[in-house]
Amino acid sequence: MADQQQELARDLGFLEAYTIGLGTMIGAGIFVLPSIAADAAGPASMISFLIGGVVSLLAALSLSELATGMPKAGGSYYYVNRALGGFFGSIVGWGMWGGLMFASAFYMLGFGQYLTYFVPMGATGVAIAALGMAALLVAVNYYGVKETGALQNVIVIALVGLIIVFVAFGVLNVDMSTLRPFNPEGWGAVAATAGTVYVTFIGFEVIATSAEEIKNPSRNLPLSMIAAVVTPTLLYVLVMFVSTGTLSIDLLADSSIPVADVAEEFLGSVGALAMVVGAVLATVSSANASILSAARVNFAMGRDNILTNWLNEVHNRFRTPYRAILATGVFILALIASPVPIGTLAEVASFSYLVTYSLVHVSVMVMRRADPEDYDPAFQIPDVLYPVVPAVGFVASLAILAQMNTVVTLVGITIVGVGVVWYLGYARNQDIKEGLVGEAIAPEPTPATTNGGGDGYRVVVPLANPKTERDLLRFAAASAHAHEDGDAELVAVNVIEVPRQTSLEQDVAFEEERVSRQQELLDQARDIAAELDVGLRTRAIVSHDAGDAILDVVEDEDADHVVLGWRGSRTTREHVLGSTLDPVVERSSCEASLINLASETEPDRVGDVVALVGEGPNAPVTVRRAAEFAAIEDDATLALLNIQAPDADADADASPEERGRDLIERVAAEVSLDVDYDTEVVVGDDVEATALEAVDAYDTVCVGATREGAVSQTLFGSLPETLGERASGTVVMAQGASTSPQSIREAIIERLSR
Amino acid sequence: MPDSFFQRVVVPVANHDDAATTADAVVPYVENSGATVIAVHVIEKAGGAPDKASVEQREQTAEEIFDTVADGFEGVAVTLETELRYGTDVAATIIDAAHEWTASTIVFTPRGGSRWRKLLSGDVTHKLVESSDVPVLVLPDREVSDA
């Protein structure tokens, strides 16, 4: 069912994934950057775009492998965190978040610049327009205004069409002499410009972050990513070729709406207007996608406890991650309002993403080497290209980083520094070890004192409380000893229950504590078992549901008997015995004993044992348990007790006492009891009161459970519960093996019918 | 035969609030009737445009919403099923679910929301009422008063 649902969630085919990628790729970059790029490297800046494209292509290959292996929200952040751990995870998470903020601010300023085509305004006006649009986008995403795939496709197709028209007409108009000198600033400037324009290439990451939603990901994911890199690369190179071939470098560098100015030359004002409209659409859609991507990075970081999950609250009404969107939005507005020049915004975004992708390349190699069990990418970098792709990609990313100017490098390193400081100051203390919070049960193999898997009598003992641990093990050992044909053994289990949604920071700190407590508890169990001279294996489990986990162990171990601690009272209205005990008792098919110790603080004394013998189906198992426990201590005694109602009609065949004795003898014979025991029959009207009074003289009381009828009323009748609650001694509730274990369905129905 | 309306009811739940109010409103009608209640939550997909929140994030939220529903039906003798669906059109997805579960009715409580909000985010209630071929029943979400 889960798989099927997962399939239903996949609604992006190749075309959709491709257009999502293109939508972010053909963004502000190509409309704003020509002037900045031309200023920095002249016509040779088209080579810078080519370099950027090649570097992105390498990253796309590595990302495809990681994304198909780990189709999780969060993209690069998630892969790096998984492969390289929280330190680099924090760097990349903050890097991506920061990068997306800087990129969005850059897009929005580009948007403002293109508005000057309609309304002549200065830098302040541009910034105000950018602030207004950014605020609108944040609102749209905060309130979850419906956007449709159709609209997205129209925008992308319109943009691609516009650029193709621009290129087609422009190429005819290129004046080769304007292209000279081709490389006025030298190759160093070309490489540095590659860093500047890299921001136009960060869009394909969006495809990776949507990996969980892509149909047939092994094919569509790499294909759409490669296509979403190659198409814009070609278009960008051509746009630069046309731009630098149409306008002189000086004119281009001075333009704040370069592509429109170029189009004006050969398409007239209609062409210019079309390019302005295209630029507006492009900048808005890029910024929109970036804001949403940032929220996903936040979510993924929260999921790994690198960031507080407070940020990832989904709005009850709007169903949007409103806090994350607001936080990102505030930073974007601040960046727009700050005096940072538009080119620097772009470069810082590039810097962050180059750092990210260099670590992505490392992650591919790490994942391949580590080859964890659950990592099985549907797409793999072809053998001929591995490890060339990640290695070259890593070196190339670093090489571009090294070319970037000092200011950008400082800001970029500051963002990395934020990631490092955050890790050291916050995340490190939150981070829980990989695989720990996993859904799956992770058995901890410990050397078995006896060979597991045999046919020996096996007693499963879930342990939770170090105070009651010894006594529970003692009872369990008694049961094992009674079945000693050489290979009886105990299986001690401790379950760490994790909430379905790993949550608040306090919870996480708590988690580490629980792991060490679990280890202590189980170590101690091993020592106790050695003292008791019984074989013991331990299983440390992390699960969402302790009851389920214990049942799994019972089944997995093919257990004969499960011994559980019990507080002796109804815990809540919903649960008869407790949320963990209920399912185990109801659904386990083996014998079960619930033990309510007389005292948690003092070691338990078995002393004089009494078994309540009635007509119920669990009478034999109750007697057997009592006999087993009485054998623990040398001076312990065993008594079988039956309670009879006083005779209603005087002419019955036998007196109540006689009937009681008969019953006890029958049950004792049934279990072929071969030890000495006392027989006691008590007569009383009120069974509960009589029983309570009668057992007061004993140290340990065994009482049978019954599983007939609706669970709530008669799971154990009211007698065992009353005893558990009120008897002063230790109370053991015994349940026999069930021949037809309740199905989960039955259990659910029964639960609901309470 | 009003009873048969409540044999198999599909209950759409969008968030915690209406999970709680809907459960409260439905309980009196299905109590001790052996009815099957199918709580359906739809994760809205943009069908090409980037979604507002990642699917995984919303799946977590859905789990919590289902927990709220289960709490609401705690102690009531009904068979409770939960179903998570994905679709670009929430109303159509709910109707599909109703068909697949052969539901007798789709039952919910008014969800409120301003006209603006409905205009911008799509009015699921309206679409559901308009296009469902399964009976749709709207229960009051408060005690009936003189209003």
Using the 3D structure, state the CATH architecture of chain B: 3-Layer(aba) Sandwich
Shape of chain B: globular
Structural class assignment of chain A: alpha/beta
Helix content of chain A: 55-70%
Total separate domains of chain A? 3
Q: Average pLDDT value of chain B?
A: 80
CATH-derived architecture of the largest domain in chain A: Up-down Bundle
User: What's the CATH topology label of chain B?
Assistant: Rossmann fold
Largest interface: A-B, 53 and 41 residues
β-strand percent of chain B reads 15-25%
CATH top-level class of chain B: Alpha Beta
State the end-to-end CA separation of chain B. Answer: 28 Å
Reported for the largest beta sheet of chain A, the result is: 10 strands, mixed
Superfamily at the CATH H level of chain B? Answer: HUPs
In angstroms, what is the radius of gyration of chain B?
15 Å
**What is the subunit arrangement here?**
heterodimer
**Proportion of residues in β-strands of chain A:** 5-15%
**Helix count, DSSP H or I runs of 4 or more residues of chain B:** 5
SSE-based structural type of chain B = alpha/beta
Task: Give a structural overview.
- The complex is a heterodimer of chains A (754) and B (147).
- Helix content of chain A is 59%, strand content 8%.
- Chain A has 754 residues and is of the alpha/beta class.
- Chain A has 3 domains: 429 residues, Up-down Bundle (Amino acid/polyamine transporter I); 132 residues, Rossmann fold (3-Layer(aba) Sandwich); 188 residues, Rossmann fold (3-Layer(aba) Sandwich), CATH 3.40.50.
- In chain A, helix 21 links the parallel strand 4 and strand 5.
- In chain A, helix 24 crosses helix 26.
- The two termini of chain A are 27 Å apart.
- In chain A, 52% of the residues are buried.
- The N terminus of chain A is likely disordered.
- By secondary structure, chain B is of the alpha/beta class.
- Chain B has a single domain, classed as Rossmann fold (3-Layer(aba) Sandwich).
- In chain B, strands 3-2-1-4-5 form a 5-stranded parallel β-sheet, with helices on both faces.
- Classes of the chains: A alpha/beta (754), B alpha/beta (147).
- At the A-B interface, helix 1, helix 2, helix 8 and helix 13 of A face helix 2, strand 3 and helix 4 of B.
